[in-house]
Every structure is written in structure tokens, then in C-alpha cells.
Amino acid sequence: MPQLSLDCLTLTDTSPPEVIRSAAAAGFDLVSLWVQPPPMYPAAQTTADHIGECTALLADTGVKLWSLEVFDLVSEQALESYRPALELGARLGGKAALTYQLTNPDHGHAADLLAAFAEIAGEYGLAVNFEPVAMGKAATLSQARDLVRASGADVGIMFDAWHLVRSGCGIDEIRAIEPELIRYVQINDGLASIPEDQMIPESIGERLYPGEGEFPLVEFLRALPRDVPWGIETPSLRRTQAGMRAGEQARAAMAALQALIDTL
Fold first, then answer.
1. How far is CA 225 from CA 28, 63, 130, 229, in A?
2. How far is 221 from 137, CA to CA, in rounded Å?
3. What is the rounded distance in angstroms from the CA atom of residue 56 to the CA atom of residue 68?
4. What is the pTM of this model?
5. 188 and 161 in contact (C-beta within 8 Å)?
6. Cα 38 to chain center, whole Å?
7. Dihedral (C-alpha) 160, 76, 153, 231: value to the nearest 10 degrees?
8. What domains does the chain contain, in order, with CATH numbers?
9. What distance in Å separates the CA atoms of residue 253 and residue 126, rounded to the nearest whole number?
10. pLDDT tens string 238-255
11. In this predicted model, what pLDDT tens digit does every residue of 37-69 receive, in sequence order?
12. By three-state DSSP, how is residue 170 classified?
């Protein structure tokens, strides 16, 4: 079975050290961290001030940092501005920088930027994964594959169940992608459909834990590679607002994830 990651958006407005502590206590192997501003939630931003504490926690707990979030393919100038965040993430032992085409409508330009970003990330010893985002300009797995191909770079694809479903796709979209291109899997659940105006609030604040919704997660996971990390990305502001601490949320997320894996 794959290594399991607690992806930082799951814990919403939680500091990087607390993300690591919570992941370790819940039994996760890996974490992701926000290294490139702005984060979805202010406390989640990893800065130079966190390096000492995070380095010690990673060493003491055995949890590893995998994915560094998140870099938009906007412009050549933006790519150069990402260097401090990439260097910080590499110092903490990060393995892969996550990028997407959120705002740039020019697919040819985005492909060139992806190639350049992969080269820059490689200078810091980092791989690159591209995430199709339902609200972005490259929204589906097939669009992500086409962009990676056009870039000519050795870039993987991050699969996220939420973005797959909310982009109107399903299992056939997964089966159409070469398995070796999918190098990270993010798991979450939700209703089969929601009004369009609820997509962003759901995406950043109220995804469901596995087993709470209607996504065909077992079918999805049986079609996905198991030699790559599987992360859980399930932000739950209602849990936070009900007084559930980060560590409790991490344990609940792990229990839901483990129950799903047990069905496989």
C-alpha cells in the first residue's frame, strides 16, 4: 500500500509545526506544507521562522515532507519569484513542488512555463506535479496530460477526487491516462453534484471525509497507482468551528482514510 499523507489544507488555519505534530500523532507517513504565499489560510504559511522547529519535528517524528504547495503558472517573472519558496521547501526535505494553471488562459504559454518551472525546481532537487483544478484553465486529467506532453518536461500529474468529480469527469477519465503519469493521489468525498456557486467554498472549506459522501472512491482508487503517495485533503471548517482541534481532525481523517483502504 502507498505511503499516506496528511495534506495541510485538511487542517485549514493550522501552523506548519502543528500540521507535522498532528500527522505524526495520527499515524501519517507524510505531510504537505504551504510554502508559496498566499496560503488558503494565514496560519498555514511556512516561513523561514518555521525552519528550525519543523526540521526538528520531522527528524523526531519520522514524518516526511512530500508536496510543496502551490505554484501558479502565471509568467516568467512569477517563476523566478518562486525560488525562495522552493529553496525553503527543499531545505525541509520536500520532494515535489505542486503547480497548476489556475489563471493563465494561454495553454501554449502555460506549457512553456511548466517546462521552465520543472527546470527551476530541479535546481533544488525537486520533482514537479501538475494538478488539474476544476475552477482553473486546465481542469481535467486529459487537459493536464496534454499540457505535460506539450511542455516536454518530466512532470507528473496529481489526481484529486474532488477536482475530477467537480470538473464533470469520472472513472473513464482516469482510465484514459497513462498510469505512470499519475504521481500523487488526493482523496476526499462529496455529494455527487452541487450548485456551481458552492464549488469554491466547498473546495477550500468543506470537503467530506471518505465515506461521508457519494464519490465512487473505491472504483477510483482501484484504477489508480499504489506506488505513489496517497494524501487526504478534506478541509472541514464545521469541525473547527465546533471546537475540534487539529490533532483530533487528523485522527478522524486517518480513520476515514484507513476504512476506505480496508475495502480495497
1. 19, 22, 16, 9
2. 25
3. 18
4. 0.97
5. yes
6. 15
7. -20
8. 4-262 (3.20.20.150)
9. 27
10. 999 999 999 999 999 999
11. 999 999 999 999 999 999 999 999 999 999 999
12. coil
